[in-house]
User: What shape does this take?
Amino acid sequence: MYRIGIDVGGTFTDLVAVDDSGRVVLAKSVSTPRDPSLGVMEGLGLLAAELGRDLASLLAETERIVHGTTVATNALLERKGSRVGLLTTQGHRDVIEMREGLKHDRYNLRMPPPIPLVPRALRIGVQERMRFDGTVETLLSRASLAAGIRRLKQAGVETVAVCYLHAYRDPRHELATREAVAKGMPDAYISLSSEVLPQIKEYERVCTTVVNAYVGPALSRYLKRLAERLKAGGYRGDVLIMQSHGGVAPIVDSVRLAVGAILSGPAGGIAGSRYCARLLSEGNLISFDMGGTSTDISLLEGGEPQLTGDKAVGGYKVALPSIDIHTLGAGGGSIARVDPGGILHVGPESAGADPGPACYGKGGTAATVTDANLVLGYLDPANFLGGRTRLDPDAALTAVETVAKRLGSTAVAAAEGIHRVVNTNMAEGIRIVSVRRGVDPRRFALLAFGGAAGLHITEVARMLEITRVVVPRVAAVLSAWGMLATDRRYEFVRTHVGEVQRVGADELRRLFAEMEAEGRRRLAAAFSGPVSVRRSVDMRYGEQIFEIPVPLDGLDVNAPDLMEQIVERFHRRHEELYTYSAPGQEVVLVNARLAVVGELPTLPAEPVIEATGAVRPQGGRRVYLDTWLDVPVYNLDTLPPGHEVKGPAVFESATTTVVVRNGERVLVTPHGWLDIRLA
Assistant: This one.
């Protein structure tokens, strides 16, 4: 039986099939933004061909499909979501526009105000009010609610977000509102803040709920269409959707909490990075995923990524727990331009999949990173996507020459400049997740994946004085592969603000028990495997206006000194993050968090490749590395373990290329991965 991982990116759709022995077969297809399911089905057909069978037989022998999708992300970034109406407590309809009282660029006096996802006319105040302690101050007015629903219906609203003040403490008014909306607008998608994000902080809660309502219908339509196409093709297994927190959930839960899939694709790469950390016995990794449109960077310490509840996507706050990923507009399709002052810029604009870089021959004329790499000899024009697509060197050269004329340089110098600028941008992205947070990147190894990463990664490492780079054999599709190393996961949060000792251990245990019971109930509906529980709390010092997450892994929640142990962990974590702690100050508990994890079968390790002796290069190529050099080219898929290569050299597979420069040494691992050491 097979497990299949699918990652739909802005340029390519990556697919991986793993059988019971751990054998990995991969395929790439061009993404189809207008209907991503078409690209998925085309990719499945290519995957079946790689396995020497037809699509129907492959799907019949597949037990699980895990899918990372950009549908929700693109709907938000491109402002192509549904027409949303907001029902909120009377007097609070402008919270979404007031935000937190700050601009994204707070010192920019000319910065225009943000455009809310819900126009003011569609933000309806309803007579009701819940106090902070969960008691009712004003009962829900049925007449006021009915009038609001009529206004939204008349305005042609497709989806309704409901966010009442302090509904996280008592959701009864929101639940009653859902019943009324479902009766008056039976086709509407309904999003309740008490279900999406039941925690304190009104702006975060209303914004996350609105984003969920905005992208929910688009994701629902796509997943329904994909499920129908898979069923028609003969698939009868589960389809699990990658979530931003690094776990997976079935389609029905993903549709209900669509905002949870906002970082669906990048999260797969981090899941793969966690699995790589275990295989490499290297806990400190910086994951570096460079695709056609963007580069995603994340930090793993002790083999685990950090979760955050403070993400902004497209300028909109998404406060659900998600893997801390920094995304740059830097990929193979990033467009190079010269500003009026003669300065070269690369990205964030991208040529995407259509028309793509000039060398794709689809009508694109702008010079991109891929075009520059082709001019420099890093790419074989006859071996792109395993030879299914031939790149056009002349078109790439013409596009780069346009940039060169504006710079007053040669085409090669311009191509080298594009290459160096994008490398500098990506090195700065790594500094953001490491140096700016007090972490020395030199203590970490770089894990490079994504189709374009191998062309840039060692130069980026040199800029940061990182001495080890690892490129997995499945680098081009690691996000899709990593999705198969995940578990079913449900995240819960309960707000209970109070000084730690006044909250008390019994109250905290009660909150954890309620969340665990709910998580186990959800899992039991379609899962019968082993279940684990992970707990954490959000805490702050009394005078602070922000809180920090404190993991409670390994802590006995029934210990008599539970609160004292939690406080000690908080002080220690605060010092790790900010270099100081204040044991004498009041400590406040804000949120209790719990994850219920349904543990799926472990991804089988790739079979160890048998050593077959020395390997000769499959050919050579003229490559520009400060000067033109003739370098050997090796087949990445046939390298035996233990084989050592000194740079310069090029390693190629059907889906990726790795360039190794002078002074760099490559050791092939037992799984056929490249372990690159820099002098």
Remarks:
- The radius of gyration is 26 Å.
